[in-house]
């Protein structure tokens, strides 16, 4: 059949936009090439399909949904209700109907529908949390292995409280509480007979070291308060929203879903998703950091890319005040240091596929507060700050971003930095991933 040029073009764009990896902190586009805007949400699996609900920062915090079968490529399913300022919406299914619970002006507002996608209508007025009529912040959701749904809240804005969802969708009895300072953003997973409750401290939109508490019963008591990542990483600059369990044919994989908020929880916020490593004997868990990774949703097996094609600092052109120095820790044993407004590292003859590709920048900065690194590809008129493409920029030594490379062996990638007087970046090299076989 003859394809109209516009359809053909759409088909090409769709294949170009296919995502191959989950990249914590990086801008994540949907199948139409538009940035995914679903925060504070959760994911529910039905058959082979995952449904992701979240608040749309660019649309006054209304609930939106996306779907995917591989957790990589997400199709937007649109607005689920036009209610504004419904924070941290969560899907639940305590009965034959479908529900979204979110925080509306410090109370729980529920929406109900007869189907998973669309048709959500208000279910009465917003309610306070029983039994003490607490107001709250930060909705969380957990489905127990006996099919009971629990809504998790920061009751009275500090105490994590777990309430059962009744089969009529109403908020039911309190199962337990965790009062251990000011906590919010609760999420939970269950491994063996142990419940792991992940919570955030309260630091506004700034990230903090999220913690884990455990119990052998949903009714508590909760013990712990252990870090889920090295504290200095501040949960890799994110805040918990939900824990997703993938029961694969080979392995069960638990996924931490976090929001990497911008300074006001706005549209430039990103996502940090990481596999969770659980030690059942010690009843402890930690996030397993990967700059790029994915999970096979059928087998549950987590993988990450083989090394891409590397372009080492040693072979880069270093301009201005930069110099190439020996660095034992670098893959190529060398680094270009002194990168600032007065000098760059230029990688020439980079092979590209004529499309967007992940390019990892292996670099460090001497002061995260004092400036940032940027990149200029081929004939770009202006450099792009790496932080606008991946908010791990400057905070991790491997930072993948998606760049459009021309087809052939003559791409030029300039790595520079802007900042205050003594700010400088040091780069070991770049790594270009060719994911064509993944499409
Ligand atoms: C890039 O490739 C061209 C053509 O093959 C070659 O002349 C040039 O020396 C190469 N430059 C670098 C920096 O490798
Ligand atoms: C890029 O980063 C520099 C240093 O932080 C900043 O001064 C500049 O405004 C940023 N540029 C853009 C386009 O955001």
TrEMBL record:
SUPFAM superfamilies according to UniProt: Arabinanase/levansucrase/invertase (SSF75005)
Gene Ontology MF terms in the entry: hydrolase activity, hydrolyzing O-glycosyl compounds
A Pfam family this chain is assigned to: Glyco_hydro_43
GO biological process: carbohydrate metabolic process
Gene3D superfamilies, per the entry: Galactose-binding domain-like (2.60.120.260), Glycosyl hydrolase domain, family 43 (2.115.10.20)
Swiss-Prot/TrEMBL keywords: Glycosidase, Hydrolase, Signal
Residues of the signal peptide: 1-18
Keyword set includes Repeat: no
Family: Belongs to the glycosyl hydrolase 43 family.
Protein name: Arabinanase/levansucrase/invertase
């Amino acid at each position: 059949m003859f394809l109209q040029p516009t359809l053909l073009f759409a088909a090409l764009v769709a294949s170009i936009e296919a995502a191959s990896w989950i990249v914590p902190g990086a801008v994540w586009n949907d199948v139409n090439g538009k940035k995914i805007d679903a925060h504070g949400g959760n994911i529910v699996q039905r058959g082979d399909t995952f449904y992701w609900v979240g608040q749309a920062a660019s649309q006054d915090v209304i609930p939106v949904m996306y779907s995917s079968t591989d957790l990589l490529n997400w199709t937007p399913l649109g607005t689920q209700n036009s209610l504004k300022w419904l924070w941290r919406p969560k899907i639940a299914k305590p009965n034959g109907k479908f529900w979204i619970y979110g925080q509306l002006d410090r109370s729980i507002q529920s929406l109900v529908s007869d189907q998973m996608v669309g048709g959500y209508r208000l279910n009465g007025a917003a309610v306070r949390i029983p039994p003490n009529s607490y107001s709250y912040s930060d909705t969380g959701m957990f489905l127990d292995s006996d099919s009971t749904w629990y809504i998790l809240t920061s009751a009275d804005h500090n105490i994590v409280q777990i309430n059962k969802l009744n089969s009529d969708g109403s908020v039911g009895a309190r199962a337990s509480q965790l009062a251990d300072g000011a906590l919010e953003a609760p999420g939970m997973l269950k491994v063996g007979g142990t419940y792991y409750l992940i919570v955030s401290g309260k630091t506004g939109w700034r990230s903090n070291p999220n913690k884990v508490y455990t119990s052998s019963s949903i009714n508590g008591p909760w013990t712990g308060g252990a870090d889920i990542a090295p504290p200095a990483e501040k949960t890799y600059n994110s805040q918990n929203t939900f824990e997703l369990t993938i029961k694969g044919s080979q392995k069960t994989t638990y996924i931490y879903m976090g929001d990497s908020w911008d300074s006001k929880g706005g549209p430039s916020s990103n996502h940090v998703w990481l596999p969770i490593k659980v030690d059942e004997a010690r009843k402890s868990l930690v996030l397993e950091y990967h700059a790029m990774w994915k999970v096979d949703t059928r087998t549950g097996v987590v993988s990450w890319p083989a090394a891409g094609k590397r372009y080492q600092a040693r072979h880069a052109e270093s301009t201005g005040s930069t110099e190439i120095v020996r660095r034992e820790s670098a893959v190529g044993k060398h680094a270009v240091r002194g990168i600032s407004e007065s000098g760059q590292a230029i990688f020439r003859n980079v092979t590209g596929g004529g499309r967007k590709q992940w390019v990892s920048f292996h670099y460090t900065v001497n002061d995260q507060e004092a400036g940032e690194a940027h990149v200029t590809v081929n004939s770009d008129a202006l450099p792009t700050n790496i932080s606008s493409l991946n908010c791990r920029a400057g905070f991790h030594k491997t930072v993948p971003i998606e760049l459009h490379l021309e087809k052939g062996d003559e791409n030029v990638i300039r790595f520079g930095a802007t900042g205050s007087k003594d700010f400088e970046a040091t780069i070991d090299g770049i790594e270009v991933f060719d994911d064509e076989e993944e499409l």
